[in-house]
Prior knowledge:
The protein has one helix spanning 21-48, and strands at residues 6-8, 14-16, 68-74, 83-88, 93-96, 108-110, 116-122, 131-136, 142-146, 158-161, 168-175, 184-190, 198-202, 214-217, 222-228, 237-242, 247-252, 263-264, 269-270.
Amino acid sequence: MKHLTLCWSPKFHLSSSLHDSHAYSDRLAIRSAVVVALVFVWWYAAVAQTPPPASFAAARNDEVGRSVVSVATGDFNGDGKPDLAAALNQGGVGVLLGNGDGTFQTAVNYPAGSNTAWVAVADLNGDGKLDLAVTDGGIAGKVYVLLGNGNGTFQTAVGYAVGSADSGPRSIAVGDFDGNGKPDLAVTNDSDTPADNTVSVLLGNGDGTFKAAANYPVGTFPQGVGAGDFNSDGRSDLVVTNSGDDTVGVLRIPLRRTSWQCRNDAAYRRIP
């Protein structure tokens, strides 16, 4: 009588005292199944889960006004659908309420200066409704604040002087620069006079109004401005792009200070 002994090893090799062709076929089948499984896993991870290339439908242009120069988004009427606010270089800001399907209602324009350059969206008075801040880029310009009513409409613009009589405001950043939990504004001002190239900081009162601007020198022809905590001290700092000398300037509140003091971080670093 012949005895058949089967042994499974950790590598799934099937051995038999008979060493016949059936054992070899079994080993070959197991290896083939493992290979097929590995190929499937690779295909699923590398091919099936790869998102399709991004693409966009043809642009749809909505009439707003003359010389649109910047745009910001937000839900201005609380319906959960994104709306648009567009700064108009001929003056004012146009608001387009969204329909939720990628289309927008006819723009409603609000006066705000005569040479609007930038628009920013934030809740500036803490009522849970989004407000607008826009810069009037003319000489001796202002930053205007339009408080939102929560239904898609806005109150009359209130202007605040920034920069100098020889500079024009450009962009806006919103942040809490003095750590009191109230939103503040930072506005870049460019000028042909080097000393008048500044960033203006307007500390907020928490009710949508702001204190008089304090101006800090930056590089030549400052344009963009952004807010962030760049030195991890828990306070908002500023970064400014200077188009005239191809630099980026960082302004921060020095540590161990209790009042708002802002300085340029070392020399401006040239962008390659």
